[in-house]
Design goal:
globular; 73% helix; 241 residues; 9 helices
Length: 241
């Protein structure tokens, strides 16, 4: 029985098809972002965050496939980096900004101004070609407003605190403090990944409880956030000292 070996042309077509499938996977994050926005319009906040979580999972895995399949080399016509930024801006910035505006955290005039500051500062940040350091930390606050919106709904801070937090993070977008990328930073990676997994479990529980989990769950979520802030600041000060 003769076995027909695939030709170079068929291998090339298969490689391009797989590479394009990775781009489609990345682009599907825009669809989950739309579903998150639709849930936000209905003020179904746990559902909104569930769709944002789906977007986050897509964002976490598509890079691995892209590197394994050499997507940038096989399909240079389409930039996976640009595609990723487009989808991330929807899910990390636009939908959370809308949630902050309509979530009742502050009066409407302040909320609109806060959302404008979030969108403008994040657009500038996403255009920064030096947003990451050589050791894969984010340089400045990485515009992860989806996480900030989550904590707003969990803690329900007073209006002045909400405004102060947003103002501080907008400023941090442009200052040289660094923030941890929990999957890429090599320092304490095992601990960082473990804490991210625990955070995910606690966050899902909070969503299932409609943001009214037991106090210890809220404390655990807040503690993990504080850890990552301290980890980034400690790296910043160690490099400047």
């Amino acid at each position: 029985m003769n076995v027909i070996e695939p030709t170079d042309e068929s291998r090339s077509k298969r490689s391009r098809a797989l590479a394009f499938a990775v781009h489609l996977l990345t682009a599907s994050g825009a669809a989950t972002g739309l579903l998150a926005l639709m849930a936000a319009i209905r003020q179904e906040w746990p559902m909104m965050f569930a769709w944002l979580a789906a977007s986050l999972v897509i964002d976490a895995v598509d890079g691995t496939f892209a590197r394994k399949l050499r997507v940038a080399e096989v399909l240079p016509r389409w930039s996976g980096e640009v595609l990723d930024l487009v989808v991330d801006f929807l899910n990390y910035v636009t939908v959370p900004a809308f949630a902050i505006v309509t979530g009742g955290f502050m009066r409407s005039s302040y909320a609109i101004a806060a959302a404008a500051a979030i969108l403008i500062s994040s657009a500038i940040y996403f255009a920064d070609s030096r947003m990451k350091t050589e050791d894969d930390y984010f340089r400045g606050f990485p515009a992860t407003w989806n996480l900030i919106a989550f904590y707003f709904f969990l803690i329900r801070p007073p209006e002045l605190v909400s405004i102060a937090v947003i103002a501080a993070l907008v400023i941090c977008t442009f200052i040289p403090f660094v923030f941890v990328h929990p999957l890429r930073v090599r320092r304490l990676r095992a601990l960082n990944v473990t804490l991210c997994a625990l955070w995910g479990v606690f966050a899902i529980y909070a969503l299932l409880r409609d943001f009214t989990p037991p106090a210890w769950v809220s404390y655990a979520l807040a503690s993990i956030a504080v850890y990552f802030l301290i980890a980034g600041f400690s790296r910043s000060f160690s490099r400047t000292s």
